[in-house]
Amino acid sequence: MSSVYKSPPPEMAAYSPPLTPPSKPARMPKGDPEPIDLHVPDNYVQHTLRTQKELPPITWSNWWRELQYLTVAILTITPTLALYGVCTTTLRWETALFSVFYYYVTGLGITAGYHRLWAHRSYNASRPLQYFLALAGSGAVEGSIKWWSRGHRAHHRYTDTDLDPYSAHYGFWWSHIGWMLVKPRRKPGVADVSDLSRNEVVRWQHRWYVWLILGMGFALPTLVPGLGWGDWRGGFFFAGALRLTFVHHSTFCVNSLAHWLGSTPFDDKHTPRDHVVTALVTIGEGYHNFHHQFPMDFRNAIKWYQYDPTKWFIMACRAAGLASHLKTFPDNEVRKGQLTMQLKKLRRTQERLEWAPDSNELPVVTWESFQEQSAKRPLILIAGFIHDVAAFLDEHPGGRHLLVKYIGKDATTAFFGGVYDHSNAAHNLLSMHRVGILQHGYRQGADDRAVPPAQRLRIARYNEMGASSTAVSDAETVVGEGGEREGKGEKDV
Ligand SMILES: [Zn+2]
Ligand SMILES: [Zn+2]
């Protein structure tokens, strides 16, 4: 579980060759179809978006010509039948239980089969499991494995672009159902499925697909309650039509709800999001932010308490000896994504706070000028910085007299324990009163006292490193700036 590839346990060796063997021959075996994306130009995405013609936008005058009538029929007749059935048929508890059970069976056909096995090759399945998933997935009536996986691989490869067949940038309803109801506005981006063309089970399902959807979508869910407890009508309407409506919209939510609702704990470059509601609705496909970052991982949910029955099903299949090579992304890399997002959040908090003036922004002041100006206003020198404490004189918890005593003097020792060892909060506050730097009096990096505690661990982008003395996490990185500062002309405070 800890590495991406593992060699199969000895008992698995008899299974069909792994879909993604750890090492592949450098050349394609003779006779195998060549991957369709082998010769795409380096600027494929840009080139295609610029040169490929799009179908015209859908308007009131052309919509009836642009509809995909077969899909429209399936997606309207099914819920209509379901509604009619619900209003006219008594629901028996046996049929209700079976409908829920069959919802999970056909849903898992899509999530564990179409999605995680065939589209993403996140584990290997034995032939019996593959046939089971192909049959179950047919019962969800969402197209053949090959067609579905081709579209889904394009969705991952071109997420949120016009080459993504269900780009979330066109809105919730487009990604949920709209993209199927009308002719695709442009061809989905290229995505290789030659591995699936070689797969015997995928080919078998593609060939018999119409019979399989009739059998698994309607005949079987009618037959089981009919033969089992005499509820033919309930079987057809509840386990057939109503269950199919739920499976449809449940899996469609992976393209819509999962790109719309929730948080982005692993990356925020694209629209996929994590949310428990989406997980509950989609048999565990709701941790979609994780999934788009680590699509070859057989899991969607990485915490044990998160709802991912598809993952549990795959693990159960492994325990039963039906699945192997369950892939997981290295935990170390998963944590990097999480840390980056946490730091981004902290950075926003950091940016909302006010900080002491940067040492580069302060004027350099001679000792004589400091003395001269201290006579006019209360200036105190601490750790090389000159502070104007006028606004703080009466607020000082130790009393005004202790501040007055150090006007025009160096209070570094007194501040850092000589008289009182001030708190970090006091040090932070002190830095907000900085008005200048004493010439030759300041050596950054020589002393932690020069950097306020709240600024010792600041978050900085890599291109801000060294750009300013206090934007880096610790003082040691800017040793040497003192010389430059000394060269600056004397200024008034
Ligand atoms: Zn997605
Ligand atoms: Zn996916």
Which SSEs are present, and which pair or pack?
Elements: H1 44-51, H2 63-66, H3 69-88, H4 93-119, E1 124-125, H5 127-138, H6 145-157, H7 172-181, H8 194-197, H9 200-207, H10 209-229, H11 232-252, H12 276-281, H13 288-293, H14 309-319, E2 323-324, H15 331-352, E3 364-365, H16 367-374, E4 379-382, E5 385-388, H17 400-405, H18 412-415, H19 424-431, E6 434-438, H20 481-486
Parallel strand pairs: 3-6
Antiparallel strand pairs: 1-2, 4-5, 5-6
EC number: 1.14.19.1
Protein name: Acyl-CoA desaturase
Function: Stearoyl-CoA desaturase that utilizes O(2) and electrons from reduced cytochrome b5 to introduce the first double bond into saturated fatty acyl-CoA substrates.
Offer a quick outline of the entry.
By secondary structure, the chain is mainly α. It is built from 20 helices and six strands.
Low-confidence stretches: 468-493
Would you list the SSEs in sequence order as H and E?
HHHHEHHHHHHHHHHEHEHEEHHHEH
Number of domains: 2
The side-by-side strand order for the widest beta sheet comes to: 3-6-5-4
The termini sit apart by: 63 Å
Bound molecules: zinc ion
Quote the beta fraction: under 5%
Task: Name the features.
disordered C terminus, two-stranded antiparallel sheet, Flavocytochrome B2, Chain A, domain 1, binds zinc ion, 20 helices, about 500 residues, mainly alpha
Structure description:
The protein is mainly alpha-helical. The protein folds into two domains: 10-22 and 36-341, no CATH class; 359-486, Cytochrome b5-like heme/steroid binding domain (Flavocytochrome B2, Chain A, domain 1), CATH 3.10.120. It has helices spanning 44-51, 63-66, 69-88, 93-119, 127-138, 145-157, 172-181, 194-197, 200-207, 209-229, 232-252, 276-281, 288-293, 309-319, 331-352, 367-374, 400-405, 412-415, 424-431, 481-486; strands at 124-125, 323-324, 364-365, 379-382, 385-388, 434-438. The strands form two sheets. The protein has a four-stranded mixed beta sheet. A hairpin with a 2-residue loop joins strand 4 (379-382) and strand 5 (385-388). The longest helix is centred in the first third of the chain and has 27 residues, at 93-119. The model is unreliable at 468-493 (pLDDT under 50). It binds zinc ion (ZN) (2 copies). Residues 115, 119-120, 152, 156, 291, 295 line the site of one zinc ion. The site of one zinc ion has 5 residues, from helix 13. Residues 347-439 form the Cytochrome b5 heme-binding domain. One of its GO terms (molecular function) is heme binding. It is found in: Membrane. The chain crosses the membrane at residues 67-84, 96-117, 208-230.
